[in-house]
Amino acid sequence: MKKQLIAAAVLSTLLSGAAFAQQATEGPWMVRARAVHLDSANGDSTGLGLSVNNKWMPEVDISYFVNKNVAVELVLTVPQKHTMYSNGVEIGTLKHLPPTLLGQYHFDMNGFKPYVGAGVNFTRFSGVNLLGGVATVDKNSWGPALQVGVDIPLSKGLYLNLDVKKVYIRTDVAAAGTKIGEFKVDPLLVGVGLGWRF
């Protein structure tokens, strides 16, 4: 009986060590590339019924795993051009660049790796051309960001990624130099892509 217990303990230790070694070989870095659909909340207090178009856009993120479960993720894209409308009538265009920094907690469920995240978004508006320059928006926005997602293993170091983020992006709107209200983009971002762990 003692021999069986010792053998079981040794086998368990070896298997645990092998599992740890496999996780360790993945490395602390992960890069994901996603196609993301931006769905704007389009809320405003200007009385003008402001909205921007929804769209697909590319997204890249870089994650660093502090340990098995905790990671820090930087989400990047290129400046995105939007058409702005007032009560459904086009009034111009603008661009926004929304890098986001998130802290994440990753779970391990039989190989599937769901995660949750929270952090901060900074958005820079540029190329603003509204009503021929009569209207403008505040160029900078800071706001919280929330995230849920899952990495599904495909092969060693390669994952299918599904990701949903809620990002709070708001900006003051002015006409002829006078503030008339606030526009809330507050998009829901739904993405699918691939991740590489190394």
From TrEMBL:
Keywords: Signal. It comes from the Bacteria. Residues 1-21 form the signal peptide. One of its GO terms (biological process) is transmembrane transport. GO terms for cellular component: cell outer membrane. InterPro entries: OMP/PagP_B-barrel, OMPW. Gene3D superfamilies: 2.40.160.20. It is found in: Cell outer membrane. Pfam families: OmpW (PF03922). This is OmpW family protein. It comes from Polaromonas naphthalenivorans (strain CJ2).
